[in-house]
Structures are given as structure tokens and as C-alpha cells.
Amino acid sequence: MSARSKRATVYFAPELHRALRVKAAEVERPLSDLVNDAVRQSLTEDAEDLAAFKERAHEPNLSFEAVLKDLRKRGKL
Question: Which residue of 12, 21, 38, 70 could cross-link 16, Cys pair, CB 3.0 to 4.6 Å?
């Protein structure tokens, strides 16, 4: 653990905690590394989603009804 690491208490469901401990042992890495990697991946996906929303902000909004109507017109439904 680096000197810049912060400590936090996180409560896992018992079955998740067991799975994490087993995986950490199998891959010979600390449980905290696995959790850090998972959280980092989740935050990266969130950032990508936000960028995509921003990029598409000026696209027209289509109602669900309009999409269904278009699909029917094109013979997809």
C-alpha cells in the first residue's frame, strides 16, 4: 500500500467478501487492489458515458412512439 493510500471501511455482503478473498488469493494480489481496480473501471465507464452524452447532446430527441412507428414503417416490427 502506498503512502498516499487512504483507508476506508467498506461493508460487503458475505458472499461477495468470500469471493473477493478467494480471487485475491488465486491471483496473489491484495483484496484492496482488486477493489481499487473495479472501482477505477466503473468510474472510467462513467466518464466515457458522460462524454458520449455530451457529444450527443445536440442530437434530436425521439419519442419511443416515434421509434416504434418508424420500425413498423420499415417492416422491422
Answer: 12
Cell numbers for 2: 502506498
Instruction: For residue 4, name the pLDDT band (cuts at 50, 70, 90).
Output: confident
Domain ranges across the chain: 14-73
| Predicted model pTM | 0.71
Say how far apart CA 69 and CA 19 lie, in whole Å.
Answer: 47
Residue with cell 467498506: 10
Please choose, from the candidates 77, 61, 59, the residue with its C-alpha nearest in 3D space to the C-alpha of residue 69.
77
**Which DSSP string corresponds to 38-51?**
HHHHHHHHHHHHHH
Position 2 scores a pLDDT of 65
77's grid cell = 416490427
